[in-house]
């Protein structure tokens, strides 16, 4: 019973974070597209300036990232996976390519053009690399038929991708509490948001270590 409640809470949080990312991706497109199409640069020093000036670096990060994030929950749902295993395999290949593309451009765009400066660049490099390593090791594991490790690395990768929504919550909190300007809030928001997700994934994997996803016996009431 407790486990079912926890699962509901977890899926609710996942869907909420995906919704947050979708809203911000939509706002990005709505702001950038008219300027990119008309060739008008964004206001100097504005948040959107880097996106409008480098759409060929920013959008290969955002578009595949959004598709990956929307598609991945289907792959992680055990019920869906067991019922549609052939689809899981085919769709999984597509999602890995989308995730890797987004991750590579997180480094190519996110590191040199970070809004929040050097500490944000470092966070993008560290967590972007972790995201890519996790996806590649998940792929390698399943090529070796190691379902247990495939699941573990996929959960780690997804946790980082989902962290993008939590970054936005932190940025919002910094603004709400008047703790930092938008620019100054970005680096701490990246470190807090993404490290929380990495730790949450490790806790989840400690609690549910195996391919069947069942909790450890010892911690059950
Ligand atoms: C996989 C799912 C991902 C999605 C859907 C996604 C989505 C986005 C979106 C929508 C933006 C624009 C920000 C805004 O306008 O609010 C963005 C920027 C960015 N993303 Fe991602 N992202 C993903 C993964 C990652 C990962 C794994 C990293 C690496 C840590 C990363 C690093 C960045 C960086 C550094 C920026 C630039 C922020 C800035 O403007 O300074 N993203 N992403």
From TrEMBL:
Tell me which UniProt keywords the record has, alphabetically.
Membrane, Transmembrane, Transmembrane helix
- Annotated InterPro entries: DUF2306_membrane (IPR018750)
Transmembrane residues, as ranges?
56-74, 94-115, 121-142, 154-177, 189-207
Q: What protein is this chain from?
A: Membrane protein
Source species taxonomy: Bacteria, Bacillati, Actinomycetota, Actinomycetes, Micrococcales
């Amino acid at each position: 019973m407790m486990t079912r409640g926890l699962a509901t809470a977890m899926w609710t949080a996942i869907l909420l974070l995906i919704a947050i990312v979708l809203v911000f991706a939509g706002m990005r497109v709505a702001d950038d597209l008219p300027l990119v199409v008309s060739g008008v640069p964004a206001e100097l020093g504005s948040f959107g300036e880097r996106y409008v000036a480098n759409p060929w670096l920013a959008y290969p990060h955002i578009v595949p990232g959004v598709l990956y994030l929307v598609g991945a929950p289907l792959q992680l749902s055990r019920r869906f996976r067991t019922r549609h295993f052939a689809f899981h395999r085919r769709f999984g290949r597509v999602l890995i390519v989308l995730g890797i593309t987004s991750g590579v451009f997180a480094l190519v765009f996110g590191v040199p053009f970070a809004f929040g400066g050097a500490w944000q660049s470092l966070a993008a490099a560290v967590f972007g690399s972790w995201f890519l390593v996790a996806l590649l090791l998940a792929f390698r594991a399943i090529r070796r038929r190691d379902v247990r490790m495939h699941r573990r690395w996929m959960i780690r990768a997804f946790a980082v991708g989902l962290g993008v929504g939590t970054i936005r919550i932190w940025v919002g909190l910094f603004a709400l509490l008047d703790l930092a300007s938008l620019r100054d809030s970005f680096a701490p928001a990246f470190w807090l948001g993404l490290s929380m997700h990495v730790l949450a994934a490790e806790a989840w994997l400690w609690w549910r270590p195996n391919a069947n996803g069942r909790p450890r016996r010892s911690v059950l009431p």
